[in-house]
Amino acid sequence: MNTAAATEEVDFKSFSGYLALLLALAALVAIPLIITSAPRGEYGGRDVPVWAVVTCVVLFLILMKGLYMLQPNQSALLMLFGSYRGTDYSTGLRWANPFFNKMKVSVRLRNFNSEKLKVNDKRGNPIEIAAAVVWRIKDTARAILDIDNVNSYVPIQAESALRHLANEYAYDAHEDDESKLTLRGGGDEIVAKLKKELQERFEKAGLYVEDARLTHLAYAPEIAGAMLRRQQADAVIAARKQIVHGAVSMVEMALQSLTERGVVQLDDERRAAMVSNLLVVLCAETEAQPVINAGTLYG
To answer: What is the model's pTM?
Structure first.
């Protein structure tokens, strides 16, 4: 199966339009001068050289037809009878072959804000995702001649890249894979992967991605409540682990200090009772109420 080769941009060098404009005005002014300076004929009329007048008129039309103006960050795609001749990036008043079809193309930065897309992440969870893409035309020949409509090409390819990125990564990490890259915790790395994905798709159309950022990322409404409760549970469990770890360290330090100073001699049963009491005091959510034991553990 044959595929069409990508069109390569050619840099076209145009002429100064000010000189062409000056010559056109000179040709226009020359017409009445030729008529008034023509000698009078036999019957009193002037014997005007028609060829000279026609030449000035044709020269004026050719020079004016070839004039065009380009603003900064604007280019002109030049076509001659359906054949691509080059792209002119020179700014100001320019002149080129009057038979050229001059198509002006903006190479300024453009923004595309995608709609909120509902897709499934790597685990199959439905999520909502959206992005903002800053892009511009880099190769005018590809953008105009190889693509039917660049303004409709960008949204479709950007949304396809966004869907592919969402399918490649999970929204959030679980305890067993906290080291893996996720959409929520990836940060700049996820943004870099999105930009790379977009550039690979835009390269065929001669476009360049200046920047790309996620503007919206959330679970879909139907599972948002359940996922919020799971995140809250994970946070509570993590906090409890931290509290228990600190309490155990404090109990260990207290027992070691009591033993080293010889404050009290504890057997295994009394040591276990003290550990239990200290853990209750340190891990309880409410203030512990002291209880004075007047008896003995062995009573």
So the answer is: 0.67
